[in-house]
Amino acid sequence: MKSTIFFGSFAAMIFMVFGTAVPGAASAQGYPSKTIRYVVPFPPGGITDMMARTIGQKTSDAWKQAVVVDNRAGGNALIGADLVAKSSPDGYTWLAMTITHTVNATLFPQAPFSFTKDLKAVSVLGSLPMVVVVPQSLPVKSLADLTALGHKRSLNGGSSGNGTPQHLALELYRQLAGINAQHIPFKGGAPSMISLIGGELDFVITGLPECLPHIKSGKLRALAIASSARHPFIPEVQTTAELGLPSLTITSWTGLMVPSGTPKDIVTRINAEVASVLKQPDTAERVRAQGFDIVANSAEAAQSFMAAEVERWGKLVREANIKAD
Predict the structure, then answer these.
(1) What is the pTM of this model?
(2) Which residues pair with 95 in a beta bridge?
(3) pLDDT above 60 (res 22)
(4) Torsion, Cα of 50, 56, 57, 59 (10° steps)
(5) In a 10 Å sphere around its CB, with 0-12 CB exposed, 13-18 middle and 19+ buried, how is residue 238 labelled?
(6) With helix as H, strand as E and coil as C, how does 153-208 read?
(7) Model confidence over 241-297: pLDDT tens digits?
(8) Which residues share a beta bridge with 222?
(9) Which secondary structure element, helix H or strand E, spans residue 94, and what is its range?
(10) Mean pLDDT taken over the chain
(11) Is the dihedral of CA 82, 83, 89, 93 positive or negative?
(12) I need a surface site. Which of 20, 77, 142, 202 has the fewest CB within 10 A?
């Protein structure tokens, strides 16, 4: 009788240990089995949107499962991120996130979700170099000239809004070079480029895709690229490190996140597919043509990188007293 009771208890214990693991394992093995929603917290047509659509289409082709891009712009990218943070952690809701979200972690302390607790990194997909550009009408030929001018008078520096990569770059430059500069935020990158070309601004530090056509046309002059290496699109433009400001290094980047609690094996599966997509020659050529340097790192590396970005930009937000719009 005792042996019968022991056997029954042992069997029940085995079921509890292994049986409870089966549903998670089955969902990972069968993933994906329905449409995936890829939330882009910005309007259609932007650089983050283009990357998401490229990844979404290629992943859909590989998995024979629809990946639908859902643009949820607004609230300084908080609206779309909040939607994903509060979604079911089953791998069927993705977030196209950027450096903006790591800034928001400090800029919006009362946000309806926690960037560090409610979202999990899958991969950093690509990064975009930032370029210091001035209008051709401004009588400066180098970064040293711009810095010298900023010591003589206050410069008008533009950005696509408070807390954006352009704004962070401006504040970093002001802090490192000790220049006088007035930050003028715009509603997006295009309006700031128009004002810069028109001579209403002295400089903008912006993503390469936004300014490259105007550099090529001769309307803007590139003074430096804020990265560790020169870029093949503008190989003649020196890096900030070469020009004596090695700490003025900032890239605008985009990554992929899912809700916290998403099973690790599903995260691993998404990460592997995204990396595979970005290794395909046609995809690599397309995203590089958009200005991206491909990253496609591991989920663990992406999580560490994003945590470091939250800390780095949180410090700058506090020191520069940057406030939300």
Answers:
(1) 0.84
(2) 39, 257
(3) no
(4) 140
(5) middle
(6) CCEEEEECCCCCHHHHHHHHHHHHHCCCEEEEECCCHHHHHHHHHCCCCCEEEEEH
(7) 999 999 999 989 999 999 999 999 999 999 999 999 999 999 999 999 888 999 999
(8) 133
(9) strand 93-98
(10) 90
(11) negative
(12) 20
Tell me how crowded residue 106 is: count the other CB atoms within 10 A of its CB: 18
The predicted-structure confidence for 121-149, as pLDDT tens digits, reads as follows: 999 999 999 999 999 999 999 999 999 99
pLDDT value at position 12? 43
DSSP state of 18: I
Confidence of residue 24 (pLDDT cuts 50, 70, 90): very low
Question: By CB neighbour count within 10 A (0-12 exposed, 13-18 middle, 19+ buried), where does 275 fall?
Answer: middle
The amino acid occupying position 299 is: A
Percent of the chain with pLDDT over 90: 78
- What is the number of residues in the chain? 325
What is the CA angle 251-255-256, rounded to 5? 175
Q: Any idea of the CA torsion for 31, 39, 312, 224, to the nearest 10 degrees? A: 110
CA 240, distance to chain mean position in Å, is 21
Quick check: 151 pLDDT over 80?
A: yes
